[in-house]
Design brief:
Keywords: Coiled coil. With 210 residues, the protein is mostly helical. The protein has three domains: 90 residues; 34 residues, no CATH class; 50 residues, no CATH class. It has seven helices and no strands. α1 runs antiparallel to α2. The N and C termini lie far apart (137 Å).
Length: 210
């Protein structure tokens, strides 16, 4: 719709030629319409002022809410990073206390609750014996005893007695030679203890091995 620039006076003058009564009625209705428009404009301005006031009042609260959301998100990221660093420590503590089936590589649960206590008896046993139960140690001891029993009954794998005695005599002979060569026996009044193997080798008192 196009706007027609007519004022109230011009409209009244155009209609005045028709009849005076119609002119009075029209002027009254126009005056009432102008009053209503002025009232509507005042109410509209009041509403705009209230909206602007509310915006000014809510601006600090909006900024505070935005900053609070950013702070909460930062705290969540920090908590996630700390949890990632502490998970290996939780798992190690669970393994030490034999809690939450940690040796089965299950998910880590809340292992540091107040109502959850560490089994110090089992922990002390593992630190002393290297095992977490008597059953494993008994089984190992029984296996060792079984093997020792089998080894004591079977003498085929052992060397002959003559070979063992000859090795012992050779070691004592070499020891005597070293003692005599470097003069340890002469400084301490040492006399050669000639063993049968040394006598057969031709080493006596006052003789050098070289």
């Amino acid at each position: 719709m196009s706007y027609i620039p007519h004022t109230v006076s011009t409209v009244v003058m155009e209609v005045a030629a028709e009849s005076p009564q119609e002119t009075d009625l029209l002027s009254c209705s126009l005056q009432e319409a102008e009053e209503q428009m002025e009232l509507i404009n005042r109410e509209y301005r009041k509403v705009l002022m209230k909206i602007e006031t509310q915006k000014l009042e809510l601006a600090p609260k909006t900024r505070s809410l935005f900053n609070l959301e950013r702070h909460i998100e930062s705290m969540r990221r920090t908590a996630a990073c700390r949890k990632e660093r502490l998970d290996p420590l939780h798992l190690a503590m669970d393994k030490l206390s034999f809690a939450n089936n940690a040796y089965r590589d299950n998910a880590i649960k809340h292992s540091f609750l107040e109502e959850q206590e560490i089994d110090y008896r089992r922990l002390n046993f593992k630190m002393n014996h290297g095992r977490k139960s008597f059953q494993i140690e008994r089984r190992l001891l029984s296996e060792i005893k079984t093997k020792e029993g089998k080894g004591s009954n079977t003498t085929d794998s052992l060397p002959p007695l003559e070979v063992i005695e000859s090795k012992v005599n050779q070691r004592s002979t070499v020891h005597d030679q070293i003692q005599y060569k470097y003069g340890y026996g002469q400084r301490r009044g040492w006399r050669s203890r000639a063993s049968p193997a040394a006598e057969t080798a031709g080493i006596g008192e006052g003789e050098s091995c070289c």
